[in-house]
Write a structure and sequence with these properties.
With 306 residues, the chain is of the alpha/beta class. The strands form 5 sheets. It has a 4-stranded parallel sheet, sandwiched between helices. The longest helix is centred in the first third of the chain and has 22 residues.
Length: 306
């Protein structure tokens, strides 16, 4: 297995426990076409997860599009040319924008609210076009809000669950942007990873677009209360601030297709997942307080803003 990462958001330590004879990390940028051509030789399946995130797209829209959309088109061309047998594109529920109905099937309209969502949708369209035009075996996966060990609390990749957990563990206020009634469908990382792998190997997924979610929704206000309960900090303060730009108000996955095509059924409940993540943070050699020094509260603003 070859892992390609420029380490802008990833970390070497995330692969530290994998055997070196079975997992090779290549530190390079997916925009380096010559490196990608060399690395894809004799590769059976490409799982394309590389991207820059939602908040990054607000302060750096052109770079976000270049990585998420343009580079995806180039990777598809390379993979087809060198004979990769299957290309699995890992998109995002952000392509939908705010739900028009729930639960959201794969046929739900796509009205992304950020350049990130738009660029991921462009990547989807390129991926489906390669299947339709060239009969090249591709699959599109739409994960809904994965979380778990090694998720991001830092910089413009920072996510609500790790931010909430670390702030609660440090007895710092949890910050909610907007009224907190926006909903998400949170899926534990091991469930999401299993679904992505299944999509790469199942015979009936070629040409398909498939949601990967837990199949339930929770408001951010309810999430904050759940984090309090898991951490055991009932008195942790919650602060509401102005809404974030481009924030999607409702996401809730219909998972019928993933069940039928992949046999996908999430195994980890939200409470169990939050507990696992809390225990992972507490097992580390660095305190929540130290980790929070990497947090950028208003992480959609220009690089370096706090």
């Amino acid at each position: 297995m070859i892992v390609v990462d420029n380490l802008v958001n990833g970390q070497r330590e995330n692969l530290a426990k994998l055997p070196e004879d079975k997992c090779q990390l290549v530190v390079t940028d997916i925009r380096d076409e010559q490196r990608m051509i060399a690395l894809m030789q004799d590769v059976d399946i490409v799982f394309h997860l590389a991207c820059l995130g939602v908040r990054h797209s607000i302060h750096s829209p052109h770079e976000n599009h270049e990585v998420n959309a343009t580079a995806t088109l180039k990777l598809l061309s390379i993979a087809k040319t060198v004979g990769v047998n299957r290309f699995v594109y890992v998109s995002s529920s952000e392509v939908y924008g705010t739900a028009h109905w729930v639960p959201m099937t794969e046929e739900h309209p796509t009205f992304p609210m950020t350049v990130y969502g738009s660029s991921k949708l462009a990547g989807e369209c390129y991926t489906r076009a390669f299947y339709q035009t060239y009969d090249y075996p591709t699959v599109v996966i739409r994960p809904f809000n994965a979380y778990g060990p090694r998720c991001h609390h830092e910089g413009d990749s920072g996510e609500v669950i790790p931010k909430f957990l670390l702030r609660c563990l440090a007895d710092n206020p949890m910050i909610i942007f907007g009224d907190g009634n926006q909903t998400r469908d949170f899926t534990y990382v091991s469930d999401t990873a299993k679904g992505i792998l299944l999509a790469g190997f199942a015979e009936n997924t070629v040409g398909q677009t498939i949601n990967l979610g837990n199949g339930s929704e929770i408001t951010i206000n309810e999430l904050a209360q759940e984090v309090k309960a898991v951490v055991g900090q009932a008195n942790t303060t919650i602060i509401h601030e102005a809404p974030r730009p481009g924030d999607v108000l409702r996401l809730y996955a219909n998972t019928t297709q993933s069940q039928q095509l992949l046999g996908f059924k999430p195994q980890v409940t939200l409470h169990e997942g939050l507990t696992k993540l809390k225990e992972w943070y507490l097992s580390r050699d660095v305190s929540p307080e130290i980790l929070l020094e990497q947090e950028v509260v208003y992480n959609w603003q220009s690089k370096g803003s706090r």
